[in-house]
Amino acid sequence: MRVHSFGQISRFACIVAAACVLVVLPAVAQDAGSKAHGTTISMGSAGDSTAHVVSRLPLKSAAFSIVSEDGRSALLLMDTTIVAQLTDRGLSALHQSADSAAKSDKVENVFARMVAGAVMGALKPMLDHGVAYHLRDLGSAQYESGRLMLRNKAGKEVFGKMSINGKDVMESFSPQDAREFARRAKAASVKLLSS
Q1: Which tens digit of pLDDT belongs to each residue from 13-72?
Q2: Cα–Cα distance between 86 and 67 in angstroms, integer?
Q3: What is the value of pTM for the model shown?
Q4: DSSP symbol at 104
Q5: Which stretches of 146-174 are DSSP H helices?
Q6: How many helical (H) and strand (E) elements, i.e. helices and strands, does the chain have?
Q7: Helix axes 110-127, 88-102, angle to 10 degrees
């Protein structure tokens, strides 16, 4: 009988767990995305180095905020940052979607459902956060072609690759709200830089 060290078993368990996540998570995500009322989030890999993750903030704590027309995402203008985050409604819809996906009949294996449930349980607290961008790095803000355009000083779009349910977040605000947010973000950036 061969005896394995704890390190070998631990390493093997990590490999098996990673393999299960790689197999189960795409099935769960596909199922979640196929639900009529489910919520999926994507964010492109071309992030900005000045953006950082923050705890989700109450909308009333912002100097100004706008909510997407579907009510699932928000932009908050704070004293020194712009924060993109899910609203309570968006977070609730995402949790419901993840729960139903983990319990779905499409994930047939009991072990696979268990791993999917564990993965979703670990991801839920991470989604209760926002992405903050420093106003001092904002180069421009305007509404054009149906889209709120926030760009850094090099002209690169900020929050440009974020989507919820396949809808670009920066296209999800009413034109009136987006224009007002752009106006206030520019003014706040100028004020911050002059102080």
Answers
A1: 433 343 333 333 444 344 434 333 444 444 454 445 578 899 999 999 999 999 999 999
A2: 9
A3: 0.69
A4: -
A5: none
A6: 4, 10
A7: 170
